[in-house]
Amino acid sequence: MAPTPKALLVSDLVSSENIEQIPSNYIRPISERPNLQDVYDDTIPLIDLHHLSGPNRAHVVNQIGEACRNYGFFQVKNHGVPESTIANMIEIAREFFKLPEEEKLKTYSDDPTQTTRLSTSFNIRTEKVANWRDFLRLHCYPVQDYIHEWPDSPEGFRARIAEYCQSTCGLALQLSEAISESLGLDKDYINNNQLGKHGQHMALNYYPPCPQPDLTYGLPGHKDSNLITILLQDEVPGLQVQRNGHWVAVSPVPNTFIINIGDQVQVMSNDKYKSILHRAVVNCDKERISIPTFYCPSRDAMIGPASELVTSDEPAVYQQFTYGEYYDVLEQRTCNRE
Ligand code: OGA
Ligand code: NI
After folding, report:
1. Does the beta carbon of 278 lie inside 6 Å of ligand 1?
2. How far does residue 279's CA lie from ligand 1's centre (Å)?
3. Ligand 1 pocket, 93 CB below 6 A?
4. Which helix (H) or strand (E) holds 283?
5. Is 280 in the pocket of ligand 1 (CB under 6 A)?
6. Which numeric CATH code is attached to 10-15+32-336?
7. Which of 121, 219, 235, 276 to mutate to test the pocket of ligand 1 (most atoms within 8 A of CB)?
8. Residue with CA nearest ligand 1 atom 6
9. How many helices (H) and strands (E) does the chain have?
10. Annotated domain spans of the chain
11. Cα-flanking dihedrals φ and ψ of residue 233, to 5°?
12. Three-state DSSP class for 59?
């Protein structure tokens, strides 16, 4: 029999004892386990955003459109977020998860409606099998509404997060403009029509080393429910993206971000672009940090296919709904937590 966990967070479980077997509540049934050997030899496009401002904008917009249509995922370089901001963000996230258990637990909550909370797994109130992940979720737009809720240790935590999320907010805006244009819509289409007052959330994901990575997940396959996700990962691989029924591993490239289309862009594009299944696997040797920024509509935002993309040949695939309605249904199904 595998031991029962003594710690609430996986990071504390791993640091408190030298475990050789994972506790039974992390073990997936055989049919649901990741097959770590069976990774498809493919990659997602890497797009240089340098020419997004300038005479070659249309070319970059085209590349983004192609990537959204064919993959739902792409990487970006020359994105305007300074290298030091990225390095500081990863460093402070690592330090946060190294804090003593009692310090971290000050922010712990299993209530998904909390705007700042540390938790573990996915949704521990509802799921049957736990995941090998701890995470800190933060609402971060507008920063001044939330910054006082964020943990204030390690030292400098709030300032670094604020700097990072203001910088990625600029990138999210550029991407939403380019994605609108790539669909033949006005560049402000997403920002004016799909966002409402706009929200931005972040997660700091921490995946400790795992003695039996073939029995469990960091995060099982899911789609992101928001508009656009900007994922930062450290140098340790773990993200896998579904493509033609296979799992493709996304190797980390320093100072790039991974961008993916969420469910709301799928709806707005009337299924021209698809929100793609992705997951995080863990490994025996190395901890891994990943930091997704979720660019979302506000709860009252009206979402629906852009009327320009609805024709008699391609009728609307979705009816209009508010993001709040969508989110509540998802929450009940617990298939995502954005
Ligand atoms: C997520 C996610 C992937 C990763 O948090 O929604 O997909 O690599 N994370 O951690
Ligand atoms: Ni995701």
Report:
1. yes
2. 7
3. no
4. none
5. yes
6. 2.60.120.330
7. 219
8. 224
9. 9, 14
10. 10-15+32-336
11. -125, 155
12. helix
The token duo for 79 is 């994105």
Alpha-carbon distance of 243 to 277, in angstroms, equals: 9
- Which of 90, 132, 290 gets mutated to test ligand 1 (max ligand atoms within 8 A of its CB)? 290
Print pLDDT tens along the chain (338 aa). Answer: 555 556 899 999 998 778 899 999 999 999 999 999 888 888 999 999 999 999 999 999 999 999 999 999 999 999 999 999 999 999 999 999 999 999 999 999 989 889 999 999 888 778 889 999 999 999 999 999 999 999 999 999 999 999 999 999 999 999 999 999 999 999 999 988 767 678 899 999 999 999 999 999 999 999 999 999 999 999 999 999 999 999 999 999 999 999 999 999 999 999 999 999 999 999 999 999 999 999 999 889 999 999 999 999 999 999 999 999 998 887 766 544 43
Within 8 A by CB and 6+ apart from 140, the residues are: 146, 161, 162, 165, 200, 201, 202, 293
Nearest-CA residue for ligand 1 atom 10 is 290
Q: How far is CA 252 from the centre of its chain?
A: 15
Residue whose C-alpha is closest to residue 61's, from 212, 204, 186, 221 = 186
187 Cβ contact list (under 8 Å, min separation 6): 177, 178, 180, 181
Look up residue 41 and give its amino acid: D
| Tens of pLDDT, residues 199-240 | 899 999 999 999 999 999 999 999 999 999 999 999 999 999
Residue with tokens 């997660």: 203
Cα 120 to ligand 1 centroid, rounded to whole Å: 13
Evaluate whether 94 touches 157 at the Cβ level (below 8 Å): no
Instruction: Estimate the crossing angle of helix 157-182 against helix 57-70, to 10 degrees.
Output: 90
| Residue 294 DSSP SS3 | strand
**What is the distance between the alpha carbons of residues 94 and 279, in angstroms, rounded to a whole number?**
21
